[in-house]
Specification:
Blueprint (H helix, E strand, L loop, with lengths): L9 H19 L3 E8 L2 E8 L15 E2 L4 H14 L9 H4 L8 H6 L2 H5 L19 H9 L17 H14 L3 H10 L11 H4 L8 E4 L2 E4 L17 E2 L1 H13 L22 H13 L10 E5 L8 E4 L4 E5 L2 E9 L4 E7 L4 E7 L4 H17 L13 H7 L1 E5 L4 E8 L2 E7 L6 E10 L2 E5 L7 E6 L5 E6 L2 E4 L19
Antiparallel strand pairs: 1-2, 1-12, 3-6, 4-5, 7-8, 8-9, 9-10, 10-11, 11-12, 13-14, 14-15, 15-16, 16-17, 17-18, 18-19, 19-20
C-alpha cells in the first residue's frame, strides 16, 4: 500500500500536479475545476475551465463553488467551539437543548446525543429533503417533519449516512447561540479563519464570481436550474459555498491550528449584512479556535464498514463528522459533497501536513476528483491502492443477492439483476432519466466494487439479518433495505449515492 516516492522540488510538484489536472480534465470534460494541493513546502492552486458553459468566465482561485456535505465538518466545528466555550457538551442529550424534540421512535428521541447526530448514528430516515421555506425558521420546521420519519435501524445500529441528523445539530446551534445556523457558523468559525468568501445565500454569492452547476446528460453538459438546494438542509450541506482559497485556510487550521491574526487582511471584523460590526465576536471566536482541541475531531468514534474516500476495499472509521482512513505512513481525514450540478472532494493529513481540495461544477466531478486524488496520494504520500483479488460467487449466490432495494421514506428503488453471470445495479439517472448500469466485481462474499463508469471503484456491501437473509444493500455509505413482496415501490430518481 505504501510506495516509494521521489522527492520533488515545490516547483516540480506544482508543474506535475497541474499537468495531471489538465490531462484528466481532457478525459472527463468537467466544465470547471478549482484545485488545491497543500504541502509543508507550500500551497499549489490550479484553476481550469469556466464558471458556466452558457455564460463562461474563467475559473479563478476566488470563484465560489457549492461545497455540499463538507459543510457538515463546519457544523461540527461550530459545536466544538461552543463546547470549548462551556455552552454545551457533545455528549449532551438533544433534549437538553431541544426539550420538545420528537422522533417516531420515542426511545431514540430520548437517548439521541449531539455526537450521535455528528456521526450519523440516529438510525432514522437520513435523506429528508423538504423545502420549509427561506425564512429563519426553516430548521425548526424541518424538525417537525422529521418527527414523522421512519426509524430504519436501531440507534447506533448499522451505520448509514444521515443528513437529517445534521438538521438537528444545526437547530441546537441556533438555540444555544440565539443566532441562525448560518450566522453562528460565520461568527464562530468562518470570520475568525478569514474565510470571507464562504457564503450561504444566493443574494450574497451572486455579487462574486461563482460557478453554475452542470448535469451530464449523455455526452453533453446542461446547466442545472435552479442553482441551489433548500435552506432546511443547510447544516448538512445544501447551501454553503466557498472558494479554493478559503478551503485552504480551513485545511491549514484543521492540520496545524493556524488562525489568522486580527492584523491580517482577511476581512475579519468587517461589517456584516445588517451593518453591525462583529470584530469582538470574531476575536473571541479566534481565541476559542486557537485553544480548541482539534484532535478530538478525528479521534475515531466507530467503524463504518466501507471507507468513503479510501481505496477500493478499504474499511473506514468516522470521528466527529470526519471520515478517517489510517495507513502506516499517514492518517487521512476527508469529506466531500454533492449538490445540484456541483461535486467536491476535500481531504487532509494532519500528520503529514498535506491536503487536497477539488471543487467542480459538473455531475461527474467525483470521478475526476478521485483520479486526481489517487495521483496525489501516490506521488506525495506514497500511498497506492492494495490489490483486490476477485471472488466469484456462484450463480445461485448471485440470484440470492438480486432484487429490489428501496430508499426509506421515499418512492425510490434500485434494482440488482444477474446478467450473464454478473450482478448489475440499475441506478436511476436523476439528470437524464432512465437508469445507469453498474456492473459489480466481487472481492469477497457479499462485498463488491463497481466496475466502470463514473462510479468505478465504489464499494458495495450486502448486509444480512440474524437468519442469514439479505436485509440491506449498502452503496458506499447508504443503506437500502431489500423490498419484500408486500412493499411495492415506484421508480424515482435517487439522491446522490456517495454524498448529498
Amino acid at each position: 500500500m505504501t510506495a516509494p516516492t521521489t522527492p520533488a522540488t515545490p516547483t516540480d510538484l506544482a508543474e506535475r500536479f497541474e499537468h495531471e489536472a489538465r490531462r484528466l480534465l481532457e478525459e472527463f470534460d468537467v466544465p470547471g475545476v478549482s484545485l488545491g494541493l497543500l504541502t509543508p513546502d507550500g500551497d499549489h492552486v490550479v484553476t481550469l475551465g469556466v464558471t458556466s458553459l452558457e455564460n463562461p468566465l474563467p475559473v479563478t482561485a476566488d470563484t465560489i463553488f457549492q461545497i455540499g456535505s463538507t459543510t457538515k465538518t463546519l457544523t461540527s466545528l461550530t459545536l466544538s467551539v461552543l463546547e470549548t466555550q462551556g455552552k454545551l457538551s457533545r455528549d449532551d442529550l438533544i433534549r437538553t437543548h431541544l426539550p420538545d424534540f420528537r422522533l417516531k421512535d420515542e426511545s431514540v428521541a430520548a437517548e439521541l446525543t449531539i455526537l450521535d447526530t455528528l456521526t450519523h448514528q440516529g438510525g432514522f430516515q437520513g435523506d429528508l429533503f423538504e423545502d420549509t421555506g427561506d425564512g429563519d425558521d426553516a430548521l425548526a420546521k424541518v424538525l417537525d417533519l422529521l418527527a414523522d420519519a421512519p426509524q430504519v435501524v436501531p440507534l447506533r445500529g448499522h451505520w448509514s449516512y444521515n443528513n437529517a441528523g445534521f438538521y438537528i445539530a444545526g437547530r441546537v446551534i441556533e438555540v444555544v447561540t440565539g443566532m441562525t445556523w448560518e450566522a453562528a457558523v460565520t461568527e464562530l468559525v468562518l470570520k475568525p479563519l478569514g474565510m470571507t468568501k464562504t457564503l450561504f445565500f444566493p443574494n450574497e454569492i451572486m455579487t462574486h464570481r461563482f460557478a453554475a452547476g452542470h448535469n451530464k446528460i449523455g455526452e453533453e453538459f446542461v446547466v442545472q436550474r435552479p442553482w441551489q438546494m433548500v435552506r432546511s438542509a443547510g447544516p448538512a450541506g445544501s447551501t454553503c459555498s466557498s472558494t479554493v482559497n478559503d478551503m485552504a485556510r480551513y485545511a491549514h487550521y484543521i492540520m496545524s491550528g493556524t488562525v489568522p491574526s486580527p492584523q491580517e487582511d482577511t476581512g475579519a471584523g468587517a461589517e456584516d449584512a445588517s451593518g453591525d460590526t462583529t470584530e469582538a465576536g470574531t476575536e473571541a471566536g479566534a481565541a476559542t479556535l486557537t485553544t480548541l482541541d482539534r484532535t478530538r475531531l478525528w479521534a475515531p468514534v466507530r467503524s463504518i464498514g466501507i471507507a468513503l474516500n479510501g481505496f477500493p476495499g478499504d474499511q473506514g472509521q468516522i470521528g466527529q463528522s470526519w471520515f478517517i482512513d489510517q495507513y502506516d505512513d499517514a492518517t487521512i481525514l476527508s469529506h466531500g459533497g454533492t449538490t445540484v450540478g456541483h461535486q467536491s472532494d476535500f481531504w487532509l493529513s494532519p500528520d503529514r501536513k498535506v491536503a487536497f481540495i477539488a471543487l467542480t461544477n459538473g455531475s461527474n466531478g467525483h470521478a475526476y476528483n478521485r483520479r486526481l486524488s489517487e495521483w496525489v496520494k501516490r506521488e506525495v504520500l506514497g500511498l497506492t491502492a492494495p490489490d483486490t483479488a476477485d471472488h466469484q460467487p456462484s450463480e445461485a449466490e448471485l440470484h440470492e443477492l438480486a432484487g429490489t432495494y428501496l430508499v426509506v421514506g421515499q418512492p425510490l428503488k434500485m434494482e440488482a439483476e444477474v446478467r450473464g453471470g454478473v450482478l448489475t445495479l440499475l441506478i436511476p439517472d436523476t439528470a437524464a432519466g432512465g437508469t445507469k448500469d453498474a456492473a459489480l466485481r466481487f472481492i469477497a462474499p457479499d462485498r463488491a466494487i463497481i466496475s466502470g463508469g463514473d462510479m468505478d471503484g465504489y464499494a458495495i456491501d450486502f448486509l444480512r439479518d440474524d437468519t442469514g437473509q439479505v436485509e440491506f444493500l449498502k452503496v458506499v455509505v447508504r443503506l437500502y433495505p431489500r423490498q419484500r413482496d408486500e412493499a411495492p415501490a415506484t421508480a424515482q430518481p435517487l439522491p446522490a449515492l456517495e454524498e448529498a
